[in-house]
Structures are given as C-alpha cells and as structure tokens.
Amino acid sequence: MAAVEHYYAEGIGVATTSPHTTWREVAVIPDPGWAAETFYLVLASALVRHYSSADQAQVRLTIGGVTLPDGALSYELTGSVQKAHYGWMYFLSNKTGDQALEVSSSGGSEVTVEWGAIFVLNLDDAGLGDVDFFTGEIFTDTATTASFVDQAATVGLTANGADTWLVIGNAMYTGVSGSSNHMMRLNDSVAGALATIDVEGEDATNDVRGYLLMAAVTPSAGSHTFSVQAAHESASCTVLSSRILAINLSACFAQHAVSRDTAQQQPATTPSWTTTRAINPTPGVTGPWLVWGAFGNDVNSLSNDLAARLQINPDGSGLASDPAYGDAAPGADGWDPTDITPFHLFTLATLSAGAARAINLDVQLVAGTTLRVQERTLVAFGLEKPGAGGGVALAGTSAGMSVASGTL
C-alpha cells in the first residue's frame, strides 16, 4: 500500500521572544518539491494565547516566504490570558518553497501559540472524481448584512443519500466592531446550518480574523449547495475572502469514521473530562490517518474557561493525548458572553491494523459552570490508497516543532 501525498507539521508552546515583534516559526513543512499543475489542499490552525490587551497577536501562513492571500491574521484580545483560534484553508497549485506558520506581536508583549499545525493533501493524488469533491472560493471584499448571505459555495453537487461528506469552510474578516458580533456558518441548501460561530470584534481597524468550520454529514439524496455564509449583529464588517470544500469520504477515503452531534453539552468540571465524541475505526492496513475534532464553544460568561484534547489509541497500547499536551490542554475563550467561538484540534496519527482504534474528543470546564459545547464533530480518515510501493515517514523536532510527511 502507498499513501496519498501529504505533509504535516505542528508546534506546541511556541512563544515570541523579546522584542516580540520579530516573526518566529511555529510549524514548517520543508519544500517537498511541490508537483507542478497539481491541486493541493492546505489546512492550518493555531490556538493562540496573548499576554496583553493592547497589542495584536499576529499569526501568518506563508509559502516560499510569501504570505498567502489574506493569510496574515491579527487579533486584539481583551485580557492578559485570553486565548483564540485562528484558521486557514487554501487550494494551491504551482507553488515553491517552505510552507510555514509564524507568530509575532505588534508590540512588546509575548504571544504564545499553544498548538499550531499545517496539513497539506495532494487532492489529485487522492484520485478524486469530478462528482466526489467540490470547491469554491471568493477573493472579492464583501460587506456583511444583518442576514446570512452566501460567500464561497459549491456548485453541481448531487448526493445519493447514503455517503458521508466532509464539508470545510474558511473565511477572513476585517473591520470587526468591538460592540457588534460578526457571524459565519456552514450552510446546506437543503438541511440548513451545519456549523455556526458568532463572535464580537475588538479592534475594527487592525483585527483580521480567520475562521475554520467543519461538519461531516450524510446529505439527503438530490442536489445540494454547501456554502460559507456571513452576517453581522448590528455593525457591518468585511469578508476579505472565503473558501469551501466538500469531499465524499465514502467514495474517496473508504477507511473513515465519523461522529457528530449538534446538541449542546455541558463539560465536566476539572479534573474530570467529558468525552464529547468518540469513534473506533478498524484500519485495514497500518498507515497515516488525519484525525480532526471540532465544536462551537458557547462561552456564556467571560469567567468560563474550556480545555479540550484529542485522545488516540493508535496501536492498542492505550489512549494518549495527540497533540501531546495532555491534561494541560488550553481552551478558547471569548470577547463577549454571547460569543460562540470555533474550536479545532487535528493531527496526523499512524493507526495500526488488526483491531478497532479508539479516538476520543474530550472537553473540560477549567473554570465556571455555564459554558456549553455544540455542533460537536469528530472525523478520521486513512490516507492509504491501493497500489504498489510503500509510504515514507520522516520526523524530527526543533524548537517545539515536529514534521511528518508521506510520499508516493
């Protein structure tokens, strides 16, 4: 067996150093020699802690030293210990150079990326048929309205009522008011909203927000349009760009497992954990799997604090946190009690064949009592494909970073 061409890099606990305005690498995929005329999916996420309410916590995604369009995100947080999620998705072709996630501060205060990761998948190498994956993207500035309006959308998707589809959306916002919430959701033209965030801005001049939303669903038989939608509460802001991807997991990645529940759930209070979603895939062959957990964090009070972790039993040796920050897993808080903020953790794990492999998405209330999690999704799919040859895995660590790659 051989793996679809893919690359993964992550960094844990990577902090800026004095003078803090200097960019520091969080995660880097060394230039693999990107295949020309090839369609790559790039996903990146960062969970960022800031130690100042005056400076901007800045994270950018680059390739070959050039920041990707709207890829320089900048958040002003409200307190000295607030945390927030940043998210990116791109479809790239004909690029050269290292792929890097980098962090800095706009001033003299420290910024720490508690966890940051990049995942790259060669969609052409996955052998996706024209009816099995759909993309859409818009790079035109669009002003939000008080009602949800489509941004990037898929076209021509017809579901059979049985297959599982992975739907991923990304949007970048600016001009976000500190007294008004801006909103984003994944929408199905038939079933309605699949995942939603609702977040207050802070610095309408300097903030550039980037969000990921994900859902794994079985659409009803017939035509569907999946879209990223945007709106605002009372003050308009600008969507700089948006992207959407829908992949038929059943057709493209036969080895997959999904668990999803849209209902709200109250996490257990520390030191206990609530397993909010669980899956138990049985790999047919030993190989790499992308594992991704996501949910909306309904903040309800700024005194609430959430932790989350992915626990994986890759080979029967027992559950362990991956990403490997264990019970110290950081949470994502909000700017306002009405916020619903996004939360994502993903990793590349090698799962052994021969038995079911337990994977859990766990949540915990570190402080407070009223926080809830919603639209909880856990998905995993194997990257092995039929064919001769073998996969190659490379791993190393440096300054809090690790990188792994798979090749034909």
Polypeptide structure, described:
By secondary structure, the protein is mainly beta. It is 1% helix and 56% strand. The protein contains one helix and 32 strands. The chain has one helix at residues 249-252; strands at 2-3, 6-15, 24-29, 40-50, 56-63, 66-76, 83-92, 99-105, 111-122, 133-138, 142-143, 149-153, 157-159, 165-174, 181-188, 192-200, 208-217, 222-224, 226-232, 238-248, 256-261, 268-269, 274-279, 287-298, 305-312, 320-321, 340-351, 359-367, 372-382, 384-385, 396-398, 401-406. It has a six-stranded antiparallel sheet with strand order 7-4-9-2-32-31, with no helix packed on it. A hairpin with a 3-residue loop joins strand 15 and strand 16. The longest helix has 4 residues, at 249-252. Mean pLDDT is 89; it is low at 387-408.
User: Spans with pLDDT under 50 lasting ≥5 residues?
Assistant: 387-408
**Helix fraction?**
under 10%
Number of helices: 1
Amino- and carboxy-terminal Cα gap: 10 Å
On the 0-100 scale, what is the average pLDDT?
89
In the sheet with the most strands, the strands line up as 7-4-9-2-32-31
Q: In angstroms, what is the radius of gyration?
A: 20 Å
- From the spread of the alpha carbons, the general shape counts as globular
Strand content: over 45%
Oligomer: single chain
Structural class: mainly beta
Report the biggest beta sheet as strand number plus sense, adding barrel if it closes.
6 strands, antiparallel
Number of strands: 32
